Structures are given as C-alpha cells and as structure tokens.
Description:
The chain has helices spanning 3-9, 21-33, 41-56, 60-71, 74-98, 102-125, 134-150. The protein is an all-alpha fold. The mean pLDDT is 87.
Amino acid sequence: MTARTFFRQFRDKEEVLFAEDDLLLPSLLETIAAPTGPVAAEQLMERALVGLAGRMQPARDSLRRRQAIIDSDVALTGRELAKQARWQQAISAALVERGFDTGDAGLLAAIGFALFRRELHAWLADPSDDAVPLADRIRTALPSVRTVLDASTPG
C-alpha cells in the first residue's frame, strides 16, 4: 500500500486505531432503532450494549493491543474520548428518535457509556484467556446502576 492510498482511507496514521469504531456505531444505532414496540430503558440499554459486546468479543486480543497503544499516549487517549463523545451524542439522538425525552436520552446515553467503558476496560485488563465474556459482564453490571443510585453514605 502506498502512502497516497493509505491517506485516502485514513486522515492520519493514528486514525487506523479508531477505524473499526466507525463500523460498530451503525450497528449499535440500528439496535436502538429496531422496532420492538414499547420497551423499558434498561431493556433497550441491555440489548444495545450486549449486541455491541457480542460484536467486539472475537476481537479481544487485537482490542487489548489497541487499548495498550491508546493508553500509552495522551493524544490518542484524547482522540478516543472525543470519538466516544460523538458516539454518545449519536446514541442520545437515536434514543430521542425512539421516543425518549431529550434530557433522559442524554442521561441514558451517558450512563450506558460509563457502564460499557468500565466493563470493556476491565475485560481487556483481565489477563486470563478464559475471561468472562464482555456480554456477560454487561448483563451482570447493568443492575448495579440502580444499586449505586440507591446507595447511601454511612453515618
């Protein structure tokens, strides 16, 4: 591949690390938009995040290498966060289209993103070859959002 061909596909060499993300977002948005009739926010969040996790599961080894590269460079970390912010906006817009209030959609997108990010990073950091699948981690973690919101401080 020549440099010219490469730069027709990618804005810069760092963008290669984030190219797969552009393929995952449409799938996530399709899951949110899928006509299923009335659905509770928690069920929709689980369906969307578990679907995303299922698409990412086979790429665990390459995702681990990618994350190590991103974590080693502040500029790449910033780029990752910027891309995630764009995803969060797109997800929020999809939730509004689905019928959620604008404010609630933004909050749901933020909560879902925080949960997914936490579980993704824990999954990638797990050194075992037989780590709990990401989708199972998401299913287990989702109820913890309610538990955290219901928690009180001691004393």
